[in-house]
Amino acid sequence: MASLTKKELKKKYQEYKEQGLALDMTRGKPGAEQLDLSLPMLDLVTSKDYKTVAGADTRNYGGLDGIPEMKAIFKDFLEVSSTDEIIVGGNSSLTLMHDTISHAITHGFPESKKPWGQQSKVKFLCPSPGYDRHFSICEHFGIEMITVPMTEKGPDMDVVEKLVAEDKSIKGIWVVPKYSNPTGFTCSKKTVKRLATMETAAKDFRIMWDNAYTVHHLSKDQDELANIFDACKEAGTENRVLIYGSFSKISFAGAGVAAMGASLENVNWMKGHLSMSTIGPDKLNQLRHTRFFKDFKGVEKHMKKHAKIIAPKFEAVIEILEKELGGKDIATWTQPKGGYFISLDVPKGCAKEVVKLAAEAGVKLTAAGATFPYKNDPKDENIRIAPTLPSMGEIKLAMRVLCVCVQLAAAK
Ligand code: PMP
């Protein structure tokens, strides 16, 4: 589209402002239509039928690491070799990640000389743009964050390898390996191998492998992710990786089931800590899930229904970005094959201004900077777009407003 003059842009912006819009593109929540897909699950565990395949009573205490049929689904989901390498948690993988770090701070991992909290400094590598809540966990526990560039192949491994080899206070790295939040990038086979085999100065180094979007493809054209657990086992570094995932964006975002996959030593370590905080997870919900999905193939089949609903929303975002900003040399954006986000880069120093302008016109976006450690995007250029929750009409309108804001900010 031909460039509008500043005056024309201002006029357009004013017109949007006068519409009194109230649109929300902030968080990656599933829309109601997606949640509806899993409703039949609620009728699968009844007052007459609440026992597992093996006959265990899911109403009672017990089963700290999950019911066998749920562990079987997560074995394939998280791609570990045995159900013994799985701990099924509650409804949130973020809780499992938070608790893992918390236990490391108070007690350390099996290889730690001292609990992380008793070491003078603990640092984490944070590929960015990345997931804001990972960074909040680090901030919460006083872990110093080091920003590492996120590339189309995953974290910039030249930077990662150099840092972890020379600094033993670097204890870990966050990785969303597939359809990453917010870029949609997937780690290449080489990146996976390098992560598994790199030399780390810290003997208790951990990769927080948050595979939140592993089955969240938008079409048949999908990214492939190499198996990091196998790569670590082959390299003799199997304690290095902790794998997380959940049903939050498969069944119900507030009532899914989460799990962690790891080596037996890590699993036993985690179970020891877990047993201090719970006598067992919600097995009724696990049973609902296993009866509904049956197996991992059932999960994959179900995700095709999600894709049908959300792929057109992603397409609409890309189409409007291309139409309104394409060829103007003021913005770049990702075109993910899966996940929940599109990452938009606007001219340096403009992201905050764009988000502010959009908010004033009634379009709420994730705060600029949120995708970086300490909420500080050094170039002030990244904006995360979350297209799943709003309706198609709302998305189109919000994107048009956003594109006017980008052009206005760029013209300043
Ligand atoms: N990891 C990533 C990368 C996410 O984007 C999200 C949700 N936005 C989560 C974890 C949260 O997962 P859960 O609901 O299982 O806590």
TrEMBL record:
* Entry GO MF terms: L-aspartate:2-oxoglutarate aminotransferase activity
Extract the Pfam families matched here: Asp_aminotransf
Keywords linked to the UniProt accession: Aminotransferase, Transferase
InterPro entries (UniProt xref): AspAT_Ic, PyrdxlP-dep_Trfase, PyrdxlP-dep_Trfase_major, PyrdxlP-dep_Trfase_small
Q: What name does UniProt use for this protein? A: Aminotransferase class I/II-fold pyridoxal phosphate-dependent enzyme
Organism whose genome encodes this protein: Flammeovirga agarivorans
